Amino acid sequence: MYASKKPKRITRVVLVVHAAAAAVVVVVVVVVVVVVVGIVAVVVVVVVAVVVVVLLLVVVVLVVVVVIIVIVAVVLVVVVFFIVVLVVVVVVVVVVIVVVVVVVIIIAYLCNFVVVVVGLIVVVVVLIVELVVAIVAVVALVAVVVVLSLYSLGLRKVLISDEVDQKCVEILQSNNVEVTKNTKLSKDELLQIIPEYDGLIVRSATKVTADVIEAGRNLKIIGRAGTGVDNIDAEAATRNGIIVMNTPGGNTLSAAEHTCTLIIALTRNLGSASMSMKEGKWDRKKFMGSELYGKTLAIIGLGRIGKEVALRMQAFGMTTIGFDPLVKPEECAEWNTEWLSLDDIWPRADYITVHTPLIPQTKHLLNDITFAKCKKGVRVVNCARGGIIEEAALLRALESGQCAGAGLDVFVEEPPKDYTLAKHPNVIATPHLGASTVEAQTRVAEDIALQFVDLVQGKSLFGAINAHALTNALSPDTQPWVQLGEKLGVLGSLLTKTLSLSNVEVLLYGSTLKNAGAFMTASVMVGYLRTTRADNGDLIPHAPNMVNAPVLSKQAGINPSTNGSDDGERAVVTSQFNLVNAPALAKQLGIVTAATYKGEAEDGIPSVTVALQGAGGEIFQLQGTVAGKSTVLLSVQGNDFSIPASLGGNTVVYRTVGPAQISDILGAAMKDGIQVSACSVSSLCKNQTFGIINAYSSAPNGLKNLSEVVSSAYACVL
Ligand SMILES: NC(=O)C1=CN([C@@H]2O[C@H](COP(=O)(O)OP(=O)(O)OC[C@H]3O[C@@H](n4cnc5c(N)ncnc54)[C@H](O)[C@@H]3O)[C@@H](O)[C@H]2O)C=CC1
Ligand SMILES: O=C(O)C(=O)COP(=O)(O)O
């Protein structure tokens, strides 16, 4: 009996020890898992936050287009953070469930194998649920970012006024853009409804003239689902800060194939022969044709379509020659096309096809004089733009036999009022069908919609034809520099009250700014032009101020809406100017802008110096840099800030003649109701100092007291 009881006691002790050990293991595992999950959660929050901030910076590029974006961007941060936190909470909860299940399994392992199997099934189910939750959360997050990004540019409503493939509507709608498609609008109707829209998409039928653009108060983008933008007044769009974009390449193949079709149809009289058959005639003699083999095809304009035409017609044994001022002879020799001057081309060509835009240099490229230089019986094709071949001269050449035939897809007036040319027996005419294929229309429709979406998300400027300053300004790295440029422009405008600005030179130091010339001059001009002064006793001839800005802006085709009031020394910053229109406006105002890359800075710190030059030759200089993501002022007129002045938020900039007591200045600022957060004072140089006061609040009652202790002071929001 005794011998049989002893082992049972030992078993109980062992079980107790096992249980204790298991408990310790469970506690340790739970603690470790909770700590690890906590750390992972924090890391995830930080990483996601950084990603979101980077995303936001990209969106903020487009802040230059509308001030509202700042508010929406803030909303974006809050909402995205909120969602990120939610996602993290969900993940943590699921992980804790998994941990509990694992613990149950460990305990079960000590007790019962069946429970282990059940535990495993539970774990698998929980993991699947976790995966689904994570996927849903990520999709929701991306959707929110996309929606808010679109809204941040204000691209809520887009009008499509020409026959554009439905794909375009679908893509925009799936990105939460409201789309109206109305292809039957008269000019008056378009003028009436255009103010409602943020974006407009057209083909070649809608004429987006200056009055349509002026009427489109909310327009931000005009998209051309196709190549030629001659139906859009791009200059008026630029003045109004509206981006114009096309879809280069989407219809190239269709236009090239149509051109080849016209060449082939011409040489075998297909049009007239077909017409005569329809009239019930069997006339084989009249329509004797000629081979293309061995003939010379001249291509004027060796761009996308010109090249594709060359490659296709070479398959017929044609020799291809061509001219294009922007294409090098070596380049087109690679695709077997000989580059020749126009004068060498005329006498050699059996066929001439034009593939250039209609610009002053190409208008009436083929006229009486050039037709006379061609071989008698030359055949011509125009699948580019009406007017490159002068229509009256072509009719004369057809009548005289100098031109044996013409294939025309485009006309000066579309639809033409006068059909004489189209009806000529030696003319094959089509009603602008070069791009009218299912494939080309699907491509251009998709392209323009995706380009819109990419643009508003700050991802790409592909297809934009009038936003050169923005080209390098989209990168998050360059954003602080764009902001610095604007802030230096604002300060420059405020501090050069009596300067009649004639030149702005931007000097760039440091390799990071090597390609920053365009957007830095543009951003300086944005800041300068946006800032008008309310203390405007003097009329400054060129620089825009409260008095002359409306007139100057009107001259430049801009209708500034004053979003501030005449309230003492406070600067009024309007949002009418952006990176798209500022360079054009500066030019119209007679302000010459230039940027010079000066190589590496001596101290290795990249910086920007803005030199504002008056009509009398006097120069006012400001220098700033970017520290981390912050913009700071380094010097004004050679007066260095030993501690760089932070530029951002409510700011007061002042100048003193001679040295001044900082305590007097701050005392006066406080008397004016300014809640000071920081103050930076420059060195004394040329008997003056400059100072920047950063404030929690703007100057509510003006700068009366401060103005008594300094020579000039201005409040602004940077
Ligand atoms: N009929 C239709 O449905 C279509 C017509 N087009 C038109 O076809 C034309 C060509 O389009 P792409 O090849 O895509 O354009 P692209 O821009 O690729 O090529 C145009 C070429 O013309 C050259 N050029 C400019 N000035 C010139 C001059 N004075 N002399 C000779 N060449 C000059 C340019 O350097 C460029 O290489 C455009 O006018 C476009 O609007 C395009 C698509 C469809
Ligand atoms: O893309 C072009 O330049 C075209 O001429 C095509 O015009 P469409 O879009 O067919 O009206």
TrEMBL record:
Involved pathway(s): Amino-acid biosynthesis; L-serine biosynthesis; L-serine from 3-phospho-D-glycerate: step 1/3
Record-annotated membrane-spanning stretches: 12-37, 43-76, 83-109, 115-148
Catalytic activity: (2R)-3-phosphoglycerate + NAD(+) = 3-phosphooxypyruvate + NADH + H(+)
PROSITE patterns: D_2_HYDROXYACID_DH_1, D_2_HYDROXYACID_DH_3
Keywords, comma-separated and alphabetical: Acetylation, Amino-acid biosynthesis, Membrane, NAD, Oxidoreductase, Phosphoprotein, Serine biosynthesis, Transmembrane, Transmembrane helix
InterPro entries: ASB_dom_sf, D-isomer_2_OHA_DH_cat_dom, D-isomer_DH_CS, D-isomer_DH_CS1, D-isomer_DH_NAD-bd, NAD(P)-bd_dom_sf, PGDH
Domain D-isomer specific 2-hydroxyacid dehydrogenase NAD-binding: 261-434
Enzymatic class: oxidoreductase
EC number, UniProt record: 1.1.1.95
Domain of life from the UniProt record: Eukaryota
A Pfam family the protein falls into: 2-Hacid_dh_C
SUPFAM superfamilies associated with the record: Formate/glycerate dehydrogenase catalytic domain-like (SSF52283), NAD(P)-binding Rossmann-fold domains (SSF51735), Serine metabolism enzymes domain (SSF143548)
A single BP term in Gene Ontology: L-serine biosynthetic process
Every D-isomer specific 2-hydroxyacid dehydrogenase catalytic domain range: 158-465
GO molecular function term, any single one: NAD binding
UniProt-listed NCBIfam families: PGDH
Subunit comment: Homotetramer.
Family: Belongs to the D-isomer specific 2-hydroxyacid dehydrogenase family.
Name under which the protein is recorded: D-3-phosphoglycerate dehydrogenase
Organism: Elysia marginata
